[in-house]
């Protein structure tokens, strides 16, 4: 279970809430207490259309928070596509790199991860946020995402990253239309045949807002997509996902406890 902590003014769901360091640290400790195994710290918004910030800004947002949370014993991943930010975050106490570009955005990332020997979450990605929705064209989204993730894995291995350090992620909402996200959700088992643990990160994403739209077509606001998020997370874990990345840790932990206690079978695992 990974809890989301965006130290940004503009992320689509929690943007602006944790810009103050004390608020961010308090929320990170709270999520750990609720059952988050990792708190995922991001200093750059990746919402569709977002403009980039420079590396110095990203580092100045995340490093002080990472230092304080590390001192409090909280395990963290750094959500970044930049090798320099990942290196600074690892040095400050993060233990996992969560790279939404799967190593594509920064050719130096693989070396940083290989040298650190840390786990690396490789997400399926086709381009930066400003243009990513133009890249959401597929003949067969499941086969193409699987093939592109396999390339990311091969590149990571070629750079010397150990196979037991890799986690794959279908990248819901990143160069994906709603129907692509649903297809991937339906066919997680095909991605699991790559043989790596899979992270599923649907939390509060806009395709859930579209699903729950009001009769006039207005999407459900991001903060009111929690029940839908929990439902997708439970379905993903039941289908064999290794982990989920969510904003509401407590609700997700509760739901997964119900699922585990029910004895319902896991459909597949990597
Ligand atoms: N989505 C966001 C950010 N980071 N990391 C991974 N591994 N997978 C995702 O789908 C993902 C991510 C989107 O933004 P948010 O931080 O506001 O949820």
From TrEMBL:
Record flagged with keyword Transferase: yes
Homology family: Belongs to the DHPS family.
Protein name: Dihydropteroate synthase
InterPro entries in alphabetical order: DHP_synth-like, DHP_synth_dom, Dihydropteroate_synth-like_sf, Pterin-binding_dom
Top-level taxon in the UniProt lineage: Bacteria
EC number: 2.5.1.15
Keyword rRNA-binding annotated: no
GO CC annotations on file: cytosol
Record keywords, A-Z: Folate biosynthesis, Magnesium, Metal-binding, Transferase
GO biological process, one term: folic acid biosynthetic process
Role description: Catalyzes the condensation of para-aminobenzoate (pABA) with 6-hydroxymethyl-7,8-dihydropterin diphosphate (DHPt-PP) to form 7,8-dihydropteroate (H2Pte), the immediate precursor of folate derivatives.
GO molecular function: dihydropteroate synthase activity; metal ion binding
Associated pathway: Cofactor biosynthesis; tetrahydrofolate biosynthesis; 7,8-dihydrofolate from 2-amino-4-hydroxy-6-hydroxymethyl-7,8-dihydropteridine diphosphate and 4-aminobenzoate: step 1/2
Catalytic activity as recorded in UniProt: (7,8-dihydropterin-6-yl)methyl diphosphate + 4-aminobenzoate = 7,8-dihydropteroate + diphosphate
CDD domains to which the protein is assigned, alphabetical: DHPS
Entries under NCBIfam families matching the protein: DHPS
């Amino acid at each position: 279970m990974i809890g989301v902590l965006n130290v940004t003014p503009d992320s689509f769901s929690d943007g602006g809430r944790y810009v103050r360091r004390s608020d961010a640290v308090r929320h990170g400790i709270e999520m750990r207490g609720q059952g988050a195994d990792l708190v995922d710290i991001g200093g750059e918004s990746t919402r569709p259309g977002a403009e980039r910030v420079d590396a110095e800004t990203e580092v100045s947002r995340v490093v002080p928070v990472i230092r304080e949370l590390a001192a409090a014993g909280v395990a963290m991943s750094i959500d970044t596509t930049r090798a320099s930010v990942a290196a600074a975050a690892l040095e400050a106490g993060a233990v996992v790199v969560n790279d939404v570009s799967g190593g594509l955005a920064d050719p130096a990332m693989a070396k940083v991860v290989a040298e650190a020997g840390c786990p690396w979450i490789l997400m399926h990605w086709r381009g930066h946020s400003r243009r990513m929705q133009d890249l959401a064209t597929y003949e067969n989204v499941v086969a193409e995402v699987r093939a592109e993730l396999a390339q990311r894995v091969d590149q990571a291995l070629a750079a010397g990253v150990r196979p037991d350090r890799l986690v794959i992620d279908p990248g819901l909402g990143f160069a994906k239309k709603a129907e692509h996200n649903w297809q991937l959700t339906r066919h997680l088992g095909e991605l699991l045949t790559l043989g790596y643990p899979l992270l599923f990160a649907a939390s509060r994403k806009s395709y859930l807002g579209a699903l729950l739209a009001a009769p006039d077509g207005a999407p459900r606001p991001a903060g009111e997509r929690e029940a839908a998020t929990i439902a997708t997370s439970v379905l993903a874990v039941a289908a064999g996902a290794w982990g989920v990345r969510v904003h509401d840790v407590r609700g997700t932990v509760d739901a997964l406890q119900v699922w585990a206690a029910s004895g319902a079978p896991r459909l597949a695992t990597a």
